[in-house]
Design brief:
This protein is an alpha/beta fold and 279 residues long. It has 2 domains: 3-131, Rossmann fold (3-Layer(aba) Sandwich), CATH 3.40.50; 137-270, Rossmann fold (3-Layer(aba) Sandwich). 34% of the residues lie in helices and 20% in strands. The chain has helices at residues 3-11, 27-39, 83-93, 110-125, 168-180, 199-208, 225-237, 261-270, and strands at 16-20, 44-48, 54-55, 58-59, 73-76, 97-100, 129-131, 137-140, 145-148, 161-165, 185-190, 214-219, 242-246. Helix 1 packs across helix 6 and helix 6 runs parallel beside helix 7.
Length: 279
């Protein structure tokens, strides 16, 4: 496992998680908590809320630093304008990994792109790995851990298909379709705006992951084509097929026979003996 894959392995295997902005009045916070319950997560969960009090039957720390114990991962469910302070708090607490739910960054025009560039620079300066922003998170079906801010069905036993998607909503839909067809998943990763971790890095990790034997990808854009190609070559050498659904602008209406999700899943199921990357 290379250094980047090792870093992502630690990211996707948290044994302690801080919910920053935790509140039982938030659908995002409640969904993240319910996901851990459905998976049977047996690690430590630390709610963080400026007002303190009790959240999910646990004492809520007023900051990440106030937790006072080592924490592997933070889920930030706070407004974009509060993230600078939150990153400083994570750094002070010694937390090196974070999922950023907040929107209002590169997807929101020039001002948002500038805000995301500042966010990326701050994270690098503090040695912080980020999934997102504008991201639903990830699910580790093998080790039954997750930072996932959308509802899920009762999960099937872990399987060998890994999913990585820039769209969190589509990632959730693909996991639902997989369950309908009885396909077990190993990892599900939504990369969002990819200010740090991007699809090529996740694919590279899944190639090294012994629990993943095939990889499904939804991409709106490929930010590092060279690394993506290198990861695909490694997948080919490892006999791990990659199926990519690439979205893009079209000048004319789509033809009726364009791939549908159902056909895409059929292709995934039928291609387990081939090693190929579709773009």
């Amino acid at each position: 496992m290379n250094q980047a894959s090792s870093s992502l392995h630690r990211f996707l295997h948290p044994r302690s998680i801080a919910f920053v902005g935790a509140t039982e009045r938030s659908v995002w916070s409640n969904a993240a908590h319910a996901t851990l319950q459905k998976l049977g997560y047996d690690g430590r969960l630390y709610p963080v809320n400026r007002r303190g009090g009790e959240v999910y039957g646990r004492h809520a720390a007023t900051s990440a630093k106030a937790i006072g114990e080592p924490v592997d991962m933070a889920l930030l469910m706070i407004p974009a304008e509060a993230l600078d302070e939150a990153l400083d708090d994570l750094h002070a607490a010694g937390i090196g990994n974070a999922v950023l739910l907040s929107s209002g960054f590169a997807e929101a025009g020039a001002e948002g792109r500038e805000r995301q560039q500042r966010l990326s620079a701050m994270a690098r300066e503090r040695g912080l790995r980020i999934l997102g922003p504008n991201c639903l998170g990830f699910i580790n079906y093998v080790d039954r851990s997750a930072v996932w801010t959308a509802s899920i069905r009762d999960p099937l036993p872990a399987g060998t298909l890994g999913i990585v998607s820039q769209s969190g909503a589509l990632a959730g839909q693909l996991s639902f379709m997989a369950q309908v067809h009885g396909i077990g998943l190993s990892r599900l990763v939504s990369t969002g705006n990819e200010s740090d971790i991007h699809i090529a890095e996740v694919i590279d990790y899944l190639v090294d992951d012994p629990h993943t034997q095939s990889i499904a990808v939804f991409a709106e854009t490929v930010r590092d084509p060279a690394r993506f190609a290198a990861a695909a070559e490694r997948a080919l050498a490892a006999a791990k097929p990659i199926v990519v659904l690439k979205m893009g602008a079209a000048r004319s209406p789509p033809r009726p026979r364009r791939p549908t999700p159902a056909r895409w899943w059929a292709t995934t199921a039928c291609s387990t003996r081939s090693a190929s990357a579709w773009a």
